[in-house]
Amino acid sequence: MAAAAGAFSLREVLSAFQAAVTERREVLLGPYLRGWRGLVRFLNSLGAIFSFISKDAVAKIQIMESYCGGERQEEYRTLQSMVAYELASGLVDIQRRSEHPDSGCRTVLRLHRALRWLQLFLEGLRTAQEDSKTSTICTDSYNASLAAYHPWVIRKAATVAFCALPSRNAFLEIMNVGTPEEAVIMLGDALPHISSVYGITEELYAQHKLLNLP
Ligand code: 1PW
């Protein structure tokens, strides 16, 4: 069943991530940020309690959108061109945040780590038993990924927010992809594309030793 016109569907988010990877395995920032914008809408639809989570994502998306629409937008067409440009121009703080606190490289790194969480969470949701607790799946995937980069107070607030998540079936319905069964099939088709974006980014950042940017 198609989502009603104008209604949010997680399918569009996932297809943006699909569109983000080119044949040459480059990651296009336009579709990548479009995917993130959709994710934020999705997070907001989960209730106000998730707004502290989406707020930081929005701030980071905005930083990246201003680069992508700015004077040097050609350099920010792909993740690969951004990394090459920022490194060659000395625009990345490597040791500690100082002159370039909001480089594209460090900003995308935060989104990239969060994408891993999303990937694990949706995979957990897809493969879980019907009666599994969404909050447990979400907490487990968070602890296995993004939590390592967060101070105690954020970890605590995040874990409290997760308790407000709806049941697995309700969650699959919020995705607006059809029945829970159809949503599970969509996830199975779409998750490899998120994995691919994640994997290419991870490789690129590892190659340039950017995985621990302050
Ligand atoms: C239901 C599953 C959805 C997954 C969506 C992922 C959204 C991720 C946003 C997490 C934000 C938590 C609060 C903010 C923490 C920031 O300090 C942190 N940002 C992130 C994205 O981890 C680090 O950014 P900073 O402080 O180094 O600029």
TrEMBL record:
It catalyses: N-(hexadecanoyl)-sphing-4-enine-1-phosphate(in) = N-(hexadecanoyl)-sphing-4-enine-1-phosphate(out); N-(9Z-octadecenoyl)-sphing-4-enine-1-phosphate(in) = N-(9Z-octadecenoyl)-sphing-4-enine-1-phosphate(out). One of its GO terms (biological process) is negative regulation of interleukin-1 beta production. Belongs to the GLTP family. SUPFAM superfamilies: Glycolipid transfer protein, GLTP. It is found in: Cell membrane; Cytoplasm, Cytosol; Endosome membrane; Golgi apparatus, trans-Golgi network membrane. GO terms for molecular function: ceramide 1-phosphate binding; ceramide 1-phosphate transfer activity. It holds the Pfam family GLTP. This is Ceramide-1-phosphate transfer protein. Keywords: Cell membrane, Cytoplasm, Endosome, Golgi apparatus, Lipid transport, Lipid-binding, Membrane, Nucleus, Transport. Residues 29-176 form the Glycolipid transfer protein domain. It is a peripheral membrane protein. GO terms for cellular component: cytosol; endosome membrane; Golgi apparatus; nuclear outer membrane; plasma membrane.
